[in-house]
Every structure is written in C-alpha cells, then in structure tokens.
Design brief:
- The protein is an alpha/beta fold and 347 residues long.
- 24% of the residues lie in helices and 26% in strands.
- The protein folds into two domains: 2-159 and 295-301 and 312-346, Alpha-Beta Complex (Quinone Oxidoreductase, Chain A, domain 1); 161-291, NAD(P)-binding Rossmann-like Domain (Rossmann fold, 3-Layer(aba) Sandwich).
- The chain contains eleven helices and 16 strands.
- Strands 3, 4, 5, 8, 15 and 16 form a six-stranded mixed β-sheet that branches. It has a six-stranded parallel β-sheet with strand order 11-10-9-12-13-14, covered by helices on one side. Strands 1-2 form a two-stranded antiparallel sheet.
- Helix 5 links the parallel strand 9 (178-182) and strand 10.
- The longest helix has 14 residues, at 297-310.
- Bound molecules: NADP nicotinamide-adenine-dinucleotide phosphate (NAP) and zinc ion (2 copies).
- One zinc ion (ZN) binds next to loops.
- One zinc ion binds next to loops.
C-alpha cells in the first residue's frame, strides 16, 4: 500500500475537503497512473450529496481520469511506464457473466466495480475515484488516449463522451435522422457533437437562452427553448430520436409528443426523483422510452479512437481542486461551459 492525497466528502452535507488514504501497490496485471486531470460529472455531485442513496462515506468521486503510467505489473503488456492512460467509470467486473462476455461490463450481472463508491475487492473497503493524485487499475480497464488531443479536454470523454456516444451508436443514428438533445451540460454538449459528426440533423433543447450561440458552434442546427410552449409545439411528431441528459425532474411528455411514430426517447440523465409519464404519450405512435448506462470498455476505446481520428474533445473550464465546491454550485445553476476539469497539479 502507498499513501495518496485526494479530496473527499465525509458526509452528504459536508463539502469536499482534503483527504489522505492508501492505494494498493500494483499487482501483476495492474497499472499505476499519476492523475493529471479529472473531469467533474454531475454524477459526482449526485453521489457525494447522497441524492441517489447508497453512498459510502468518505467518498472520493471522479471517473473522468487521464494521466501518465508510472508503474506496471510484470504481466502487463498493453502499457509501459511513461505512456498516457485513462480510466472511466469502471475499474473491474466479473468478466464471466453474459453481459461481460458481450463487452457490456457496465451491465455486469455480478455488479461492475465502479471507479468510486463500489466495494473494492483488493482493500476490502470502497473504491476511491479520480479527485486524487494516483490510481491503480487492472490493465483490462485502462484505456489508451491520443497524445495529439488536448489532455485536459480529453478527460470528460471517459464519461460524458461514452455515455452519449453509446446510445447514438446503439440506435444507429446517422444521416436522415432528426435528433434532439435535451440539456446543454457536460453530456449534452458531447451528444450534440457526436450526433452532428454521425450526420444527423441536430436540435438542442435548452432552458438557458444564453447557450443558443454556443449550441450552434458545437454542432446544433437548431436550438429550441424548452420553456416556450409555442416553439415546442411547432416540432410535434418530427423527431426520430431524443437523447435526454437532464439531471433533475422535468416534463417527459413534452418531449415524447415531439417523437414521430416509432421514435425513441433515451434517458441518460439520472434524476434522483421519479419522472411521470402519460401512457398516451407512448401508446400514440408506438413510441419508446429507454435508458442507457455509460458504455463497455471496448466501446469506450472505440469512442476514444473515433475522437482522436476526428479531432473531437470536450469544451472545458479548468479549475483547481480547491474550487470544486464552487464548481458544484455552478453546476446546479446550469452554469457549466461545458465541463469542469480539475488540474490535479493543484492538489
Ligand atoms: P450537467 O453538466 O449539470 O448538465 C445537465 C444540464 O441539464 C444542464 O446544463 C441544463 O441544461 C439541464 N438542466 C439541469 N436542470 C434542469 C432542470 N431542472 N430542468 C431542465 N433542464 C435542466 O450534468 P451532466 O454531467 O451532463 O449529467 C447529466 C445527468 O446525466 C446527471 O443526472 C448525471 O448523473 C447523469 N449521467 C448519467 C450517465 C449514464 O450512464 N446514464 C452517465 C453520466 C451522467 P440547459 O441549461 O441547456 O437547460
Ligand atoms: Zn459521469
Ligand atoms: Zn459480469
């Protein structure tokens, strides 16, 4: 074991503060990474504030991790000391169940080991995430990243990137589709970029009129102010697919009514409170309401390679670790352009 510094919440009402803990030394298939940047996901906030229930404290959040390999176990083939490397939302899974065998570790029947707030089978405690100096992860859950892309702006691809890429691929979104993205935050801005890159006609739904110009720059062909009922009604029955990234309760029926026959609304936003649905919103026009959780390791690597090939990164605001509590308050006011990334040199 070796000591590591990080930032943790001690309870659901306490702000994040400096915290020291131990990481395991790398075993034969492990990689030790010095963390350079870590993105700030709204899931970090939901978790440390106990909004979803089940948070184990102290909690060190962070699952958009990029850094440099400093040590590798003797059986590690994929990485060498000095390489860039990344870690996303998972650090392990059972690798044997049907879902793991299909490269869908996020749906592991025995529970994926999430990067933070999961049971850590090595230490017997819980896993601690990327708001920290270093992390030790089995090589199968470490991703390769390009040295041609901005490193800090690459970090949020590990969650915001894969969470939007995966459903767009699963539902085969491309040319000829009219796609809506709801909410222009960390996930939403990547949803807009990917849907545009895949060739779809993209509309962004926002509650923030001041994001209109940015949304167009990010790749939206159209921006719809969701609080304006008249504007919403003009788009009735016109969408093939809507990706909903909203982090709080909101009116799903207002979006379902915009879908064409057989259209699908996919929730990736994870409101802590249940969302109501009018049965007729689905029955009429045989619409579907679905959900999607991050993406498997192979697909995460595919997404990172796609981003390297197409020069896609996130639009970020770099912060130092002591600004994290303020960043959470801004996130709650939808004031993120469009992902905070912590520069770990500040720790
Ligand atoms: P974020 O950066 O805070 O963005 C959320 C956006 O939703 C806001 O910028 C805002 O956009 C809109 N919004 C917020 N509150 C709203 C409200 N009350 N009504 C309507 N719109 C509202 O958050 P994020 O990091 O992108 O995460 C979004 C959600 O996805 C969170 O719940 C997070 O936990 C979840 N998530 C899920 C997965 C998964 O695998 N499914 C993975 C990562 C995150 P506008 O200002 O444009 O309206
Ligand atoms: Zn996340
Ligand atoms: Zn499994």
């Amino acid at each position: 074991m070796h000591p590591t510094k990080g930032y943790a919440a001690k309870s659901k009402t306490s702000p994040l503060a400096p915290f020291s803990f131990e990481r395991r030394d790398p075993g034969p298939t492990d990689i030790q990474i010095d963390i350079l940047f870590c993105g700030v996901c709204h899931s970090d906030l939901h978790t440390v504030r106990g909004e979803w229930g089940g948070t184990i404290f102290p909690c060190v959040p962070g699952h958009e991790i990029v850094g440099r390999v400093v040590k590798v176990g003797q059986e590690v083939k994929k990485f060498r000391e000095g390489d860039l490397a990344a870690v996303g939302c998972m650090v392990d899974s059972c690798r044997a169940c049907a879902n793991c065998r299909e490269n869908l570790e996020q749906f592991c029947d025995n529970g994926p080991v999430f990067t933070y707030n999961s049971k850590d089978k090595h230490t017997g405690g819980n896993t601690y995430g990327g708001y920290s100096q270093s992390i030790v992860v089995d090589q199968d859950f470490v991703l390769r990243i390009s040295d041609k892309l901005d490193l800090a702006a690459t970090a949020p691809l590990l969650c915001a990137g894969i969470t939007t890429y995966s459903p767009l691929r699963h539902w085969k979104i491309g040319k000829g589709h009219k796609v809506g993205v709801v909410g222009l935050g960390g996930l939403g801005h990547m949803g807009v970029k990917f849907a545009n890159a895949f060739g779809a006609q993209v509309a962004l739904f926002t509650t923030s009129p001041n994001k209109t110009a940015d949304a167009k720059k990010l790749g939206a062909h159209e921006v719809i102010l969701s609080k304006n009922e008249e504007e919403m009604e003009k788009h009735e029955k016109s969408f093939d697919f809507i990706l909903d990234t909203v982090s709080a309760p909101h009116d799903l029926d207002a979006y379902l009514s915009l879908l064409k026959r057989d259209g699908t609304l996919v929730l990736v936003g994870a409101s802590p409170d249940p969302l109501a649905v009018d049965a007729f919103s689905l029955i009429h026009r045989r619409r579907s309401l679905a959900g999607s959780l991050i993406g498997g390791i192979a697909e995460t690597q595919e997404m990172l390679d796609y981003c390297a090939e197409h020069g896609i990164v996130c639009d970020i605001e770099k912060i130092s670790i002591d600004q994290i509590n303020e960043a959470y308050e801004r996130m709650l006011k939808s004031d993120v352009k469009y992902r905070f990334v912590i520069d770990m040199a500040s720790l």
